[in-house]
Structures are given as C-alpha cells and as structure tokens.
Amino acid sequence: MKSTELQSIKQRYNIVGNCEALNNALDDALKVAPIDISVLIIGESGVGKDILPRIIHDNSPRRREKYFVINCGAIPEGTIDSELFGHVKGSFTGAINDSPGYFGVANKGTLFLDEVGELPMATQARLLRVLENGEYIPVGATEVRKTDVRVVAATNVNIEKAISEGRFRSDLYYRLNRVNIQMPPLRDRGEDIVLLFRLFAMEMAEKYRMEKVVLTDEAKRMLMHYKWPGNIRQLKSVTEQLSIFSTERTITPNILSKFIPQDQDTTQLATINREGDHTFENEREILYKILFELRSNVNDMRREMSTLKKQIEDVQSNGGSLPTTQLAPITSYSAGTEQSPRLAEDAVAEEYVDPEPENLNVNDWSRQALEKALNRNGGNRKKAAQELGISDRTLYRRLKQYGLDK
C-alpha cells in the first residue's frame, strides 16, 4: 500500500501510530476487504482490534449494507442463541414476538463477533453451520432459514490452547481463520506510545479546558519501556489521571511512576476461565503426589506397628514388664506433609495393660507428653501441638479427655 493511501486510512479512522506491525495489519485489512471470506483478528485486550472490522466492511462490496458489532462475552449464555439466530413467539418465557436475530437482520451485511472465544459450545455448532452454508434455525423454530452475512471475528483468547482443552471447536476455528490478522500489543509499538499519550492529553485539555500535560525526555523513555498489559486502554486511563490529578503539567519520571502500577507482569494473551472450563491438571498432580506419599507412609506405619506388637508379645510371654525406654516410638504420618511424630494414642494398635500399677501404660505416657509439651511452651497450646506433631483439634480433644483443658 502506498504511504499516502495508508495515511488517508489513518486520518479517516483516527488511527495514531507508524510502527511496522500496525501498518501491516491495516494493509492486510484493506487487501482482504474486497474478498468475501471470514476474517479472524487476534490480539490482546485493549489493542484496538475493533477498528479493523470497520475498515474491512467500509472497503468491501457490502459497505452499503448493515454492520453490527456483537460482544459475545457480554451476552448471557442462556440468551445468546436467541440474540444471534432469533426465536419464534412462545419459544421461551418472555418471547412475546418473533425475532430475526442478528443473522437475520444483518442479511447482506457484516457481523463483527468480538470475543468469539467466549461462545458456548452449542452456539459454536450453530455458528459453524451458518459459516458453511448460510443456514440457521431460530430458537423454537422448525424450519431452516437462509442468510448471507460476512463474519469478522476477534479474540484475545489463545484459541489453540482452548481447542486442546475442549473449549473451542477446531472446525469452527479453521472456518473463521480463513484470513488471520494480528494486532500488535502497545509495548511493541515503540514511539507510537508517546504519540498516543500526546493525543489523549490533547483531547483532555480541549474537552475540559485545562492545560495540557507534556512529558520530559526521561518520562518518554519510561513510558516506552513499560509493559502496558492493558495496552491502549490502560495508556488512555493513565493519561487522563495525570491530566486530572497532577499539579505539575510537565511530567517527570518521578510523577509518572505514581500513576503506573509497578507489579503488572502479565503480558500474554488472555485466557478465559469460566466456571465449568477447569482442566483439574494441577489438582490431579497434587492428588498423585498425596497418594504416593500416603502409600509410603502406610508401609512405614505398618513396620512400626509390627515392631511394637512384637515387643508387647515378648513382654507378655516373659511375664514381665518392658521399660518405657525400650518401646519403639510409634510414628503417624500425614500425607502431603513432612513426617512428624504423633502420640501413640493416635495409632491403631493393640492396647497393652501392664499388670503392675507402677508401669507406664499408653494413656499415662500420652498425658505426660501433653503436660511436658505445655510446660515447655508456657501453656501455649498451638506451639505444644506443633511440637507434638498433632493438629490443634487433636490436642484440644486430648486435653479434654485427660482433664487438662481447665
């Protein structure tokens, strides 16, 4: 495209910028406009994707017909089929009249489906049929209707990832993606950022009759090195805030830093995460880890219990008592956590009752362990529970059982 023709398009649609990626996107839109096929525009949220469908329509053979913009993400899932494909009277509560839907009203014209990646799967099937043969059935109707509509779609969703997760139909993607146009993110547009800032600052000054804010050279460099995760929409918001709240009209890096968030790291294409679209991959990995650790812990606990049982049997067969120092420590394990000693009372084992009153049984040992842990921690129950390797609930239950909760 000639530079004069490109500048004419920018002036007509109030497009600011000279970066190569932006010029290529505009050039692609003008090339595909006369060819009556569907177009998919891909770019992050806030980059200005909505201008390309307008350029395509205005420079196409359909330019004298109707042009509609539909935000697919803003229409409730329960009514989106009716909005797009129409309905017949009485097909659902509130359907008091027939409605042709956007595909009926826009016959011979152009439909811009923004945020097409958020369409429900059932609606995607209906849309695919329209794109393939121009046929659709309104909600509640039985007869097929025909329409001749050109579809231009846009998305900020990583469609290929959505396909792999089962959230978007691959056949619909290939049908929409007859021609693909990429809109560059603001962080890749270099000096266009400063030009856009100047435009927004001038609009604020003219609209509200205030002195225009200007950037120092250092502030310009700071502006161009920022990631701009919100793209042009975020830049406009920052410019408006500076125009309103800054007492200084010459903006330095120190002033600018107060209006630019410093913790924005996300710069990838957005992905939708609606309820019901969860893959559970992280949870599955966690469950596998817990199961493996639980299996290991159970085997260790079996060995401990076998040792204790053998010691108890030896004591009973010898008719004597076993000093408490010879008892193998019983360890209970909690899956997903580091192995930690638990009270012998928490393990399931045969209860050993010593015939001699002076010998220590399991309950006495458990009570003494609780008392010592509480004394060492100055009566702090939470710390005592941590030292014993048991939960707060188990500690409180033991304190109540032994009458130590007062």
Number of helices: 16
Average of the residue pLDDT scores: 82
Percent of residues in beta strands: 5-15%
Shape: extended
Sketch the topology as an H/E string, one letter per element.
Answer: HHEHEHHEHEEEHHEHEHHEHHHHH
* Order of adjacent strands in the largest pleated sheet: 2-3-6-1-7
Give the C-alpha Rg: 35 Å
Assembly annotation: single chain
What about the largest sheet?
Answer: 5 strands, parallel
Query: Could you tell me how far the N terminus lies from the C terminus, measured between alpha carbons in angstroms?
Result: 87 Å
Share of helix among residues?
A: 40-55%
Description:
- The protein contains 16 helices and 9 strands.
- With 406 residues, the chain is an alpha/beta fold.
- A 5-stranded parallel sheet has the order 2-3-6-1-7, covered by helices on one side.
- α9 packs across α11 (231-245).
- Residues 266-280 and 324-360 have low confidence and may be disordered.
